[in-house]
Design the sequence.
């Protein structure tokens, strides 16, 4: 079991209200990702759940039990830190065994659990090494190993992949998702990388300045962002926002159109643009354009589109996939 | 070409380093040389060639007992260091891991006491020592040396503890370690090099302290610094004997420093070079 409930949780550091007030329900077995720009309070929220910070107000419940005043160790959670936070003076074996030793388990039981965890995480050959003798990816695995041996009711991940290079990040992303499918334990994952959020989450919580902007499945957020912030944050490249006459003709203050929902043509279209930068990735092409009467627009199309700096290109937005926002930035539904 | 330049740079740097080291070491070397001269040779003027007599060492030992001030030095240096660590470890711990708005001010204030000339407080401290019966006692001097070096000990430990990432301590907390287990299994093993080099440096500082040890003692608690000073007495200056006494006084700490130099360098440059 591992359901987490936040009721009216707030956090104040001195004068700064980092989290004004948050209500959130995390169901047992869910993979929940907190995403938002840096300084939005997502790590603070995770640390409040972990018990590493005291709440300024509100309640935190784990499996229905109020743990607001409980010490971190009493909450039955395990955490993986951004810096891995391995114990540098201990071998990999002792690092993974540490929480079990603290729980005063039998030596034989500890040995078995450590061996099992090492096998799952491909660390068997490294058990006698020190953390300093491991690569970044291996260190991250040790940190995960230390978390899983405890069989916690939920895992907390604080930007665990941000210190890894891009290729390793991709691999570890898959490994963590795979681990979630195997263990079926609740996971709460903090990241500023919306690709990680989109690919891993069952449920994404988008945070901005300590407030929840929207909660939903990755595709919910992609298809129906509730406001300009979520619309601009979710999706890569970012959504294009168009104000003025075009938006007014759609009865909105701002119109939003994703780069992949623009039809490109070299002959005709609604808008005319000049290519500033063309990024040819093979599988798809990104064009950054200066569009007459509109401004900067990013367009994406599948496969190769033969356009280069200075070329004229015509664009037509797919009106069925247009997003409309009122003057407060809230999405207008048809 | 490039290799030649690098080699030449290396040679220049090495020679320069040796020259600087020799200049720094020269007073000690000259003390050593003078200690094996006869008294007339010692006053005669600058000379690097002694007659090589060990008579001064014998005289120093027979005229005055070396063992007693040596033991006093050991007790004062080790005692004041242990006392300072007992006070400094918890305070540095608190300041490094749960700092308040005033932590920096407290650290600066502690350090500022080292900026004051010691002679400025000589009279009040002398009077207090006299009134409490602490003059010429090991206890009084141990407390004095502890207080003198405490700011430096706290600072060193504080900077050392600051290098220990807070996340590791948080990880231990998440892993179920209580405060005591966190200190014993995680913090202390990681801080041992820092504590060790602080201990070594403080022993050296306490061993060499000469202002208070000479002024607050006469015979009973007088350490080696007072032992050296006693050779420049009203009966006249005995350069060779003074040098022999000095050599005997600094020898133990030089040997300690030599064997622990790796630890000391690591401790003093920690944070600067990683």
Sequence:
């Amino acid at each position: 079991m591992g359901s987490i409930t936040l009721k009216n949780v707030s956090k104040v550091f001195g004068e700064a209200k980092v989290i004004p007030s948050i209500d959130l329900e995390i169901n047992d077995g869910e993979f929940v990702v907190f995403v938002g720009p840096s300084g939005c309070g997502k790590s603070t929220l995770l640390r409040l759940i972990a018990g590493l910070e005291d709440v300024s107000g509100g309640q935190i419940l784990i499996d229905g039990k109020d743990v607001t005043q409980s010490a971190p160790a009493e909450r039955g959670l395990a955490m993986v830190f951004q810096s891995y936070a391995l114990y540098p003076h201990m071998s990999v074996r002792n690092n993974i065994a540490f929480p079990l030793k603290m729980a005063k388990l039998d030596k034989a039981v500890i040995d078995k659990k450590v061996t099992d965890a090492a096998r799952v995480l491909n660390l068997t050959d490294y058990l006698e090494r020190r953390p300093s003798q491991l690569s970044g990816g291996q260190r991250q695995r040790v940190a995960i190993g230390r978390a899983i041996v405890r069989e916690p009711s939920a895992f907390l991940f604080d930007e665990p992949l941000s210190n890894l290079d891009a290729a390793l990040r991709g691999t570890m992303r898959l490994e963590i998702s795979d681990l979630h499918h195997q263990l079926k334990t609740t996971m709460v994952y903090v990241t500023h990388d919306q690709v990680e959020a989109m690919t891993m989450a069952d449920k994404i919580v988008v945070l901005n300045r300590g407030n929840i902007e929207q909660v939903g499945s990755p595709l919910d957020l992609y298809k129906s962002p509730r406001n300009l912030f979520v619309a601009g944050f979710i999706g890569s490249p970012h959504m294009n926002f168009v104000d003025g006459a075009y938006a007014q003709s759609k009865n909105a203050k701002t119109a939003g159109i994703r780069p992949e929902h623009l039809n490109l043509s070299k002959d005709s279209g609604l808008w005319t643009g000049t290519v500033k930068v063309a990024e040819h990735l093979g599988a798809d092409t990104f064009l950054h354009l200066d569009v007459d009467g509109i401004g900067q627009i990013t367009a994406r199309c599948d496969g190769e589109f033969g356009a280069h700096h200075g070329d004229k290109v015509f664009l037509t937005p797919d009106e069925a996939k247009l997003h409309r926002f009122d003057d407060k930035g809230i999405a207008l539904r048809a | 070409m490039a290799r030649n330049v690098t080699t030449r740079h290396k040679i220049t740097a090495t020679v320069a380093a040796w020259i600087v080291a020799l200049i720094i070491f020269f007073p000690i070397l000259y003390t050593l040389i003078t200690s094996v001269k006869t008294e007339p040779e010692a006053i005669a003027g600058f000379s690097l060639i002694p007659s090589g007599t060990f008579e001064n060492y014998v005289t120093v030992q027979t005229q005055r007992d070396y063992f007693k001030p040596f033991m006093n030095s050991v007790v004062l240096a080790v005692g004041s260091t242990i006392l300072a660590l007992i006070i400094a470890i918890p305070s540095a711990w608190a300041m490094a891991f749960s700092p308040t708005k005033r932590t920096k001010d407290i650290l600066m204030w502690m350090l500022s006491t080292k900026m004051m000339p010691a002679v400025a407080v000589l009279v009040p401290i002398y009077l207090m020592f006299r009134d409490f019966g602490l003059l010429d006692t090991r206890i009084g001097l141990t407390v004095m040396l502890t207080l003198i070096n405490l700011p430096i000990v706290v600072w060193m430990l504080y900077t050392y503890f600051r290098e220990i990432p807070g996340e590791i301590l948080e990880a231990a907390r998440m892993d179920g370690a209580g405060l005591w287990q966190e200190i014993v299994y995680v913090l202390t093993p990681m801080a041992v090099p820092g504590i060790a080099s602080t201990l070594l440096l403080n022993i050296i500082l306490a061993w060499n302290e000469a202002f208070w040890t000479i002024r607050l003692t006469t015979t009973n608690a007088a350490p080696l610094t007072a032992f050296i000073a006693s050779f420049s007495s009203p009966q006249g200056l005995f350069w060779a004997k003074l040098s022999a006494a000095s050599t005997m006084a600094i020898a133990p700490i030089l040997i300690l420093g030599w064997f622990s130099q790796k630890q000391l360098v690591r401790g003093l440059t920690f944070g600067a070079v990683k």
Summary: The radius of gyration of chain A is 23 Å. Chain A has two domains: 4-230, 240-332. Chain A touches chain B at residues 50, 52, 71-73, 77-79, 81-83, 85-89, 98-99, 102-103, 146, 150 (CB under 8 Å).
